[in-house]
Design goal:
- The protein has 10 helices and 8 strands.
- It is 43% helix and 16% strand.
- It has a single domain, classed as TIM Barrel (Alpha-Beta Barrel).
- Helix 1 crosses helix 10, helix 4 crosses helix 5 and helix 7 packs parallel to helix 8.
- Strands 1-2-3-4-5-6-7-8 form an 8-stranded parallel β-barrel, surrounded by 5 helices.
- The chain is α/β, with parallel strands linked by helices and 281 residues long.
Length: 281
C-alpha cells in the first residue's frame, strides 16, 4: 500500500496561515501524512512541527517553490546563491520532519518566464541541481522536480523534457514529481506519461483537471492507478487540491470559482475515493 497525504495549503487562504492546526485536520480526514509548503523555511519551527506530527501519529512530505529572487537558473550569482541557500534550508527542515522528499518547483522560479536565452538558463539549472542533488543525497532525501504546465513554467512542461533534464543532471537523488493537474494539460495520454517516467517518478500529486478534489472531474483515475502499479511506484500519493477562490492562495492559483465549502468533509471523501473506490493508496 502507498501512503496517502494531503498538501496543507488545501486549508489555507493565506500562505502565512498557521500550519500546525491543519495537521490534526489532515489526520481526522484519514490521511497518513501532511505535505508542508516551505515557502519561508527560515520562519518554520521544525522541531515543534515534528513534535505535533508525532503526537498525531502523522508523517510528513515537504514542498517548495522558488521565486524570481531565489531562481537557481538566474545569471546573477547572488540570486542563484539565495536559491541554493533556500533549498538547503528546506532540505535540512525536511530531514528534521522525516520527509523522504523535497518536491515542487525546486529547479526554477515558479510562474516566471525570463527574457533571453532559455538554453543558457537550462544549463545553469543543471549545474545548480548537481550541487543541490549532492546535498540532498548527503541528507538521505530525494529532490523532486515538478513537471509543470506551460502556464506556470517553461523548463519541463512534459515528462519527456523532465527526463531529458534528469539525464543531464545525472544524480540518483534527483527525480520527477508528477501531478495529474499538470499532466492533464500537457500530455496526450496520462497513463502513458507515467509509464514513460517509470522509475524516475519520485513523488505523485493527485488533483482533478480543474484542481478540485479527486473524483470530482474527468481525470481517469483507474488508468492512473494501473500505470503507477505497472511502474511499481512505492512513494507518496498526495492530494494537492485547491477549491476556494478566497485569499491570496485562491487568487495566486487562479481558483476563480468555489468547488465546495465543507473542506473537511471533502477531504474525507477524497480519502474514501482514492483508497476504496480506486485503490491507488
Amino acid at each position: 500500500m502507498r501512503s496517502l497525504g494531503i498538501h496543507l495549503s488545501y486549508w489555507q487562504t493565506s500562505w502565512s496561515d498557521d500550519l500546525l492546526p491543519l495537521i490534526h485536520r489532515a489526520r481526522q480526514a484519514g490521511f497518513d501524512g501532511a505535505e508542508f509548503p516551505m515557502l519561508n523555511p527560515q520562519q518554520m519551527d521544525f522541531q515543534k512541527i515534528k513534535t505535533i506530527l508525532d503526537s498525531e501519529g502523522m508523517r510528513a512530505t515537504c514542498s517548495t517553490g522558488l521565486s524570481s529572487q531565489t531562481d537557481i537558473t538566474h545569471p546573477d550569482p547572488a540570486i542563484r546563491a539565495a536559491g541554493l541557500a533556500i533549498l538547503r534550508q528546506c532540505l535540512e527542515g525536511a530531514q528534521v520532519l522525516g520527509s523522504p522528499v523535497l518536491v515542487g518547483v525546486t529547479y526554477a522560479a515558479w510562474g516566471v518566464f525570463p527574457e533571453g536565452n532559455w538554453d543558457e538558463r537550462r544549463k545553469t539549472c543543471i549545474t545548480s541541481l548537481r550541487e543541490v542533488g549532492k546535498f540532498a543525497g548527503d541528507l538521505g532525501i530525494t529532490l523532486c522536480l515538478e513537471v509543470l504546465n506551460r502556464f506556470e513554467g517553461y523548463l519541463i512542461p512534459t515528462v519527456e523534457k523532465g527526463l531529458a533534464l534528469l539525464d543531464e543532471v545525472g544524480s540518483s537523488n534527483v527525480k520527477l514529481h508528477l501531478d495529474t493537474f499538470h499532466l492533464n494539460i500537457e500530455e496526450a495520454d496520462l497513463a502513458e506519461a507515467i509509464r514513460k517516467a517509470g522509475k524516475q517518478v519520485g513523488h505523485f500529486h493527485c488533483s482533478e483537471n480543474h484542481r478540485g478534489m479527486p473524483g470530482s472531474g474527468h481525470i481517469p483515475w483507474k488508468l492512473i492507478k494501473g500505470a503507477l502499479d505497472e511502474i511499481d511506484y512505492r512513494g507518496w500519493i498526495v492530494v494537492e487540491s485547491f477549491i476556494r477562490p478566497e485569499g491570496e492562495v485562491g487568487k495566486g492559483l487562479f481558483i476563480w470559482q468555489s468547488r465546495g465549502d465543507d473542506l473537511d468533509g471533502l477531504a474525507r471523501r477524497a480519502v474514501t475515493f482514492l483508497r476504496k473506490d480506486i485503490g491507488i493508496a
